[in-house]
Write a structure and sequence with these properties.
- InterPro entries: ArsR-like_HTH, HTH_HxlR, WH-like_DNA-bd_sf, WH_DNA-bd_sf.
- One of its GO terms (molecular function) is DNA binding.
- It comes from Scardovia inopinata F0304.
- This is HTH hxlR-type domain-containing protein.
- This protein is mainly alpha-helical.
- The protein has a single domain, classed as Winged helix-like DNA-binding domain superfamily/Winged helix DNA-binding domain (Arc Repressor Mutant, subunit A), CATH 1.10.10.10.
- Helices cover 55% and strands 12% of the residues.
- Strands 1-3-2 form a three-stranded antiparallel sheet.
Amino acid sequence: MAVSEPVCQSENLADICPVVLTMSLIGNKWKILIMRDLLDGPLRYGELKKSVGPISSKVLTENLRQMERDGILTRTVYAEVPPRVEYQLSPLGETMRPIIDSMRAWGNNYKKENEVRES
């Protein structure tokens, strides 16, 4: 039996696999939840912190900065006193809408199926 060659010859899977690339950009639970909440429109930091769930300020800030750097969301600072900052999905981030909607639908279907299995 011949041993097959590995499909990936790259050191970095994200260079050749679009699924790995996508997961590297949005693959933690906080980024998905941030995007889910921003689908309804811009939110301020405190609003995001409340809506996302039990996330520390440090982790939320790190994720927001990474997502801004990756072009998934935009950060708008308003010249007001006190300063107001809003986060919003960028046009690129908006392209995740059907994926997040599909995840929501899949989760709802899973819950229903699970209830049927357990009853």
